[in-house]
Design goal:
By secondary structure, the protein is α+β, with helices and mostly antiparallel strands. It has a domain of 52 residues: TusA-like domain (Translation Initiation Factor IF3, 2-Layer Sandwich), CATH 3.30.110.40. 31% of the residues lie in helices and 35% in strands. The chain has a four-stranded mixed sheet with strand order 1-2-4-3, covered by helices on one side. Strand 1, helix 1 and strand 2 form a beta-alpha-beta unit.
Length: 75
């Protein structure tokens, strides 16, 4: 998937991945996509809730070898 920016939140625990995601999305234009890498298992539910609360679209999420990847499109 194409994305305009990547955020490496690996090694960070709640709430830092969400806080950094919010900041990074704030620096993007509407319709741009942010790729987030995380290792905190709680980030899966956090990203889903964050997307619903903010109106940003969680386009895709996945997990491989203990790392989570999320693609969010800024509203």
């Amino acid at each position: 998937m194409d994305y305009q920016r990547e955020l490496d939140a690996r090694g960070l625990n709640c709430p830092l991945p969400i806080l950094r995601t919010k900041k990074a999305l704030g620096e993007l234009g509407a319709g741009q996509v942010l790729r987030v890498l995380a290792t905190d298992p709680g980030s899966v539910k956090d990203m889903q809730a964050f997307a619903k609360q903010t109106g940003n679209a969680l386009l895709e999420s996945g997990e491989a070898a203990g790392e989570f990847v999320f693609y969010l499109r800024k509203a």
